Amino acid sequence: MPTWCMVHAAPTLEDCRALDAADPLATLADQFEIPEGLIYLDGNSLGALPKAAATAVGRAVQQEWGQGLIRSWNDAGWIMRAQEVGDAIAPLVGAGPGELLVADSTSINLHKVLWAALSMVDMRARAHPQAAQTQRRVLLTERINFPTDRYIAQGVCDALGWTLRDAPAHELTAALAAPDVGVLMLTHVNYRSGAVHDMAALNQACAQAGVLTVWDLAHSAGAVPVNLSQAGAPADFAVGCGYKFLNGGPGAPAFVWVHPRHVNAVEQPLRGWLGHAAPFAFEQGYRPAAGIARYVCGTPPILSLTALQAGVQTLRAADPHGGMAALRAKSLSLTRTFIAAAEEAATAHGLWLLSPREDERRGSQVSWACPVKGEGGLALDGYSVMRALIARGIIGDFRAGDGTVDAPDILRFGFAPAYNTHEQAWLAAQALAQELERLAASGSAAAQRPAVT
Ligand SMILES: *Cc1c(COP(=O)(O)O)cnc(C)c1O
Fold first, then answer.
1. How far apart are CA 287 and CA 121, in angstroms?
2. Which residues are catalytic?
3. For the chain, which has fewer Cβ within 10 Å, the N-terminal or C-terminal residue?
4. Three-state secondary-structure class, residue 103
């Protein structure tokens, strides 16, 4: 057991430095361009810049585009790049080669796979009209989910005549057994709490109940191991984000995966020319490509893809040092260290730990919930606390809640095992304690919020 598994009491700076000295992934941080003195704890929202990305994008612009021009679709391999990057991401989420594709955004890919999953359930019902007592036309999801997932799900349900139903995380297993549920859509790691769903258990329960699963891996891919193809408990559909722990850069394309047993059985709704079986035949009628290639819609964003490719390659530099298992072990050690170092001060100021304390249930972030107004909490504005930390060069983020205990305001600290250190976790915890103290003493006024928090 590495020494970092033993941190429980508030660690000292020396403890943290010792953990960093023993870190098998320590050299990875050198492959990122992070401003001197900055403690970046927002890699779960926008991953840091891999040095290789700047070089690769420069080459793609100057040589491939500038000199090669349209010849680069073949000569520089542009036409293959989306599949190549997909193949590099695949092992991080337990997908096989050729099964996972990079395209579009997470929101758009979610639309495609939800449409395909719901259509598949409807197709089965049409094929066996007498088999089912109840029509399965409910899409089940977790009550508190990232808004885009809910919006897209509601849109697909409206278009196909389904109903969107939600349940709190702890009631999902019971809820998915209802006879009218056809599809379960979940974000593997919750964007607010950082809580991880037990994917294998839920996949198994769904398979037994005759329910298809759609997973959003936005906060998992690159930080939390996932096994989409797990024997006995495979997932059905999945999407994930390119600009978070995969470090693909702002607006990087996302990924999409469909289990090979379904991929040719159903179409996705966005019939673009590049997802055609023979795009360069320029046929007037649509025929979907075989396999995951049918999830392509139009021309891929080559410059963004190139940055994502470098981001994924940089993360895969962890492979010789233990790969995803080592990244996960370090991520847990970082979040555990931060919790232990910050908890006393956080609790003293009325904050509470929203993220699960148990390692198996915690993703790669730590969220502190701010007291709900009128609940006897301090008059402390969480946004001001985060703004003060950012002004000191410690970057996390603030996520507004809805004023209830279920969705309180949160201070969110993401830990990227590829480049964060235990020393940074310790320094961030000290700074949080100091800012809480200072703002509590001075009475923090609610600060003006810019467009992006
Ligand atoms: C980040 C994130 C997204 C991002 O969607 P975009 O289409 O890239 O804006 C979607 N879902 C979840 C759960 C996320 O955390």
1. 22
2. 146, 216, 243-244, 412
3. N
4. strand
* Ligand 1 atom closest to 107 (CA): 7
Cα–ligand 1 centroid distance for 107 (angstroms)? 6
The dihedral region occupied by 249, where left means phi > 0, alpha psi between -120 and 50, and beta the remainder, is: left
Interval 168-199: pLDDT, tens:
999 999 999 999 999 999 999 999 999 999 99
Answer for the pair 223, 417: CB distance below 8 angstroms, yes or no: yes
Atom of ligand 1 nearest to the CA of 108: 7
> Three-class SS of residue 275?
helix
- Residue 219 alpha carbon to ligand 1 centre in Å: 9
CA–CA dist 166, 133 (Å, integer): 23
pLDDT at position 444 is 53
The answer to whether 184 and 213 have CB atoms below 8 angstroms apart is: yes
Burial class of residue 71, CB neighbours in 10 A (0-12, 13-18, 19+): exposed
Summarize the confidence of residues 212-221 as an average pLDDT: 98
